[in-house]
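User: Teach me something about this protein's shape.
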Amino acid sequence: MQQDIPGHGVKEQLQTLCNVYALYIPHKHLGDFLATGCITPRQGALANEQLGKLYAQVYYIGRRRKHNDETERNPVKKKWAGQQEVN
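Assistant: First, the predicted structure itself:
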């Protein structure tokens, strides 16, 4: 992704999704990669761990985006979202 993509955080989100796809293929065919010696069991485990982290990141981005969209549509939520908590 060499060109700028308009929209807040869109480029980063697309990069994350590309990384998910790149790690999903070895995850899906891990047995084949291990059987042919293309990757070691340790590499497969690291790839699976990283894929799990990326899935969590995509989930978090989606939840945050949904919250932001709901806050923008609801003036009461928007008011409360803009205030700081007082301890």
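Now, about its shape. The chain has one domain: 10-79. The radius of gyration is 19 Å. If you'd like, I can walk through any region in more detail.
User: That's plenty for now, thanks!
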